[in-house]
Amino acid sequence: MVRVIEDVFGIAVNPMTQKTEHVRRFTLCSEKGMSVSILTLGAIIQSVKVADFNGKLEDVCLGYDDVAGYYRNQKSYFGATVGRVANRISRGHFKLCGKDVNVSRNFKDRYHLNGGFVGFDSVIWDVVGIHKDGVTMQHVSPDGHEGYPGEVTVNINFSLNETGCFGMRIEARAKATTCINISNQNYFNLAGHGTGKDTLYQHMVMIRANSIVDSDKEQIPTGKLMPVRNTPYDFSTLTNLGKRLNQVYRCPICGFDNNYCVDVDPNQVKLVARAVHPCSGRFMEVHTNQPGLQFCTANNLPDEERDEIPNIGKNGAHYVQHGGFSMQTQKYPDAVNNSDFPTTIINPGQLYDHQVVYRFGACPKRV
Fold this sequence. Notes:
Elements: E1 3-14, E2 19-29, E3 35-39, E4 45-51, E5 57-59, H1 67-72, E6 80-82, E7 88-89, E8 93-96, E9 99-102, E10 112-113, E11 126-130, E12 134-141, E13 152-160, E14 165-174, E15 178-179, E16 183-185, H2 196-200, E17 204-207, E18 209-215, E19 221-227, E20 239-240, H3 241-248, E21 257-262, E22 270-276, E23 282-288, E24 292-296, E25 311-312, E26 318-319, E27 326-330, E28 345-346, E29 352-362
Antiparallel strand pairs: 1-2, 2-3, 3-4, 4-5, 6-16, 7-10, 8-9, 11-12, 12-13, 13-14, 14-29, 15-28, 17-20, 17-22, 18-19, 18-21, 21-24, 22-23, 23-29, 24-27, 25-26
């Protein structure tokens, strides 16, 4: 039986109300010892503890011990729910119902990123349900916020079961035609959140995709899809991540930060990716009904070998470049400016339904 434990993580000013509020933490605990902690600040996944093949528990999710840590490193979006539209919108501009829409240009003053200056990652979410296996949080995004038309009500149900499945079901409804592409930007290292680059290079990764969204040096989509076969971006079978990172290290972004086009039915939740850390036996599977999976290898974290300022995480851990990975389920980036991409447009009365399940476990130790 899963237990739900609540405590107070800290206090923060809610930017939507300008009032100081408690940040609540809900920890979902299975009888087998796995646990997941979620914060009302940003609907952030703060901790994921998983056993290895010897039964040793480790926290495999990058994050911070207090509210101040998340504020200091807000641009990392660790574990945060991002929206109203995740990822990039070119020039912070698009047309909707024949009208020009301008949203905030919060990145380099050139384009829109992860919902703007005050995205879903920055607000304190309301708790609208505590269940036997999880918790439901809600946020109401006002009409005009960050430039988006239409009021949107978002509910996220977080759940855990005894088979190691941690699920998120994100549902949203709008009062006027708008665009919605909500995601969660959690970063993992299956050897342990603070074990760094060397252990990340040991991981094996599989992503069921034949193409990625082609993008320019600013990671703005060109509108084309790029086949991955016979390229370093091909993870169609379990492949050593370190080998692949060495192949792309001299590319402009020094690692992976690409939207993989996975073949799913929006009415079904399917396996789209798998990561394995052979030395501990821990694995993670990603099951979703979303057509995109943003695979990122924490390229923007500090390179301490070049004396960049450390990013200090939970328990004093140093989070370094290529010290974690993210598998972020979503629609394609800049879909509002690319009509051939799966649409992010939602009309009144229409349900936005985003389902993702992260299944964790440990493979038996090889003799």
